[in-house]
Design goal:
mainly alpha, 2 domains, 0% strand
């Protein structure tokens, strides 16, 4: 019996990944990767990209570029699609993320800040799940926002300073 359960589970897992290996899925992903690589190469030629940006480029491709690429295929009304996608994705957070990632804190500050922010975020998530802890959830949410605004203010200060 255990052997039949194992084979049934193995078959169901392979059934999940089988469609991902079809040509009509792999080909667009490969073409998108070639396109992104070409853009990166052109940016490197004009000195707007270097190897330090590799992690960000891969992250962008996997979590923003590919989902956007496949999102275009799901739109039925093609009129105004670029405008709609542009306004959905071009948010202030993109600019804030760029600024925050561009300037870093000293190592000691980072070593204190990361566990502190993790604690605040986890506490916010836990307290947000029950109605009786809503005041604590609001406190952690506001504290998280305050720290985030402080980091953004620091990044803007460094931009103006430099």
């Amino acid at each position: 019996m255990a052997d039949s359960i194992y084979h049934a589970e193995k078959k169901s897992v392979t059934d999940i990944f089988k469609p991902l290996l079809e040509v009509k899925v792999i080909l667009p992903i490969l073409l998108s990767a070639v396109y992104a690589s070409g853009i990166i190469y052109l940016l490197k030629i004009v000195s707007l990209w270097n190897e330090r940006l590799l992690k960000d480029s891969v992250f962008w491709f996997l979590f923003i570029g590919l989902p956007l690429f496949f999102k275009f295929a799901t739109y039925e009304n093609q009129i105004g699609i670029f405008k709609k996608v542009f306004f959905e994705n071009f948010k202030l957070i993109l600019i804030a993320e760029f600024l925050i990632n561009f300037y870093t804190f000293p190592l000691l500050v980072e070593l204190v800040l990361i566990p502190f922010l993790s604690f605040i975020t986890i506490s916010e998530i836990i307290t947000d799940q029950k109605e009786k802890y809503q005041s604590a959830a609001n406190f952690f949410r506001n504290l998280n926002a305050l720290v985030g605004l402080s980091i953004l203010t620091y990044a803007l200060y460094k931009v103006i300073e430099n």
